[in-house]
Amino acid sequence: MTEAATLTYAFAVCRGGDLTAPAEPFAELPGLGTGAPVRTVAAGPLTAVVQDVPAAGYDEEALRRRLSVGAELERCARAHHAVITAASALAPAVPLPLATVYLDDGRVREALGDRETSFLTALGRIAGRAEWGVKVYAPTGPPPAPAAVPAVVPAEGPGPGGNGRAYLDRVRTRQRGREQRHALALRAAERVDAAVRGLAVAARRLRPHGVEVTGKHRTHVLNAAYLLDLGRERELRAALASLRRDETDVQIELSGPWAPYSFADGGITDPGAAP
Amino acid sequence: MTERDLVHPPSVTDERHPSDLAEILERVLDKGIVIAGDIKIDLLDIELLTIRLRLFISSVDTARKAGIDWWETDPALSSRAARDTLAQENAELRTRLHALESRIGAEELSTVGAAEEERHP
């Protein structure tokens, strides 16, 4: 078998009829910057948004190498996201994961054909809806001043024994304080989640970010994604404004609207959650 | 970490932009696979990539302010650092325990000594 010079990189999947209005809706997008246009491939009732990429740069080995370089991973992630965002602006679009690559258009059609029902279901679920991200953080700095000063510890202990006990007391108090604050923050996060879930048709918990992303001064206690009907943005913002007033132990961040990345393959639907 | 970060009121929030790299990455990488491509990069690799990437992000955003290698010594992030912290605390406690024991030991000896003196005047 001879190696094809190009592979087909797939970004997103839409319903076929939805993308016919402008003839080449994505022609202006750079995509991954390979020089080839971002185009569509029809497969039955579905359409994939794709781009030709050179096999030499995007086969398994090259892709792995490429994505191992921070700057290149960022470039690819942003390019991938830009095409998905553009597709979502035109029609309901199921985002595909970064680096979904096929040998050719024929393989794209086969793959879409194999999963036709699940794609149509996913498209039905996300139509008219957008994803929002809510992150809740607990500050990790020292607790407010009064609790931090163990007034019972004399500056000059009576001897090594007194100092040792005082030391253990201090460690224990500090640890207890940390645990209490963390428990408070977790409960606050649950209340935030419950409130936003009430507005959403589906919700999903994402992995909390590590300290590399949050910074040392705060811990991530909730990282959640919610699928909301397009008309509910104002309600969402109002709910968060009120939560921010009430939940003073935590920081609450909102991001979105996103293409429904977190709900492409299901998501935890909560029947009874949305009216 | 700066003083300013600590006194920053918790309720004040910034809205994150969808252009935030960490948010984009968790969405384009961390998702369940709807469809498998012909060219596959397995999940373990992606996991490694995200870890590396998060370090990369920190090197751009946070590390510049906080010192390039602070995560090396952060117990929350580095298990080695966590072990070091534990070992250090352990050593400190042992020293204090030793001091206490020798002090009590000395007191007991002198008490016993006094008692024996009483018995054998």
UniProtKB/TrEMBL annotation, chain A:
The keyword Zinc-finger does not apply. Keywords: Gas vesicle. InterPro entries: GvpL/GvpF. Transmembrane segments: none annotated. It comes from the Bacteria. Pfam families: GvpL_GvpF (PF06386). The keyword Phosphoprotein does not apply. It is found in: Gas vesicle. Belongs to the gas vesicle GvpF/GvpL family. PANTHER family: PROTEIN GVPL 2. This is Gas vesicle protein. It comes from Streptomyces rapamycinicus.
TrEMBL record, chain B:
The keyword Lipoprotein does not apply. GO terms for molecular function: structural molecule activity. It comes from the Bacteria. Keywords: Gas vesicle. It is found in: Gas vesicle. One of its GO terms (cellular component) is gas vesicle. InterPro entries: Gas-vesicle_GvpA-like, GvpA, GvpA-like_CS. Belongs to the gas vesicle GvpA family. This is Gas vesicle protein GvpJ. It comes from Streptomyces rapamycinicus (strain ATCC 29253 / DSM 41530 / NRRL 5491 / AYB-994).
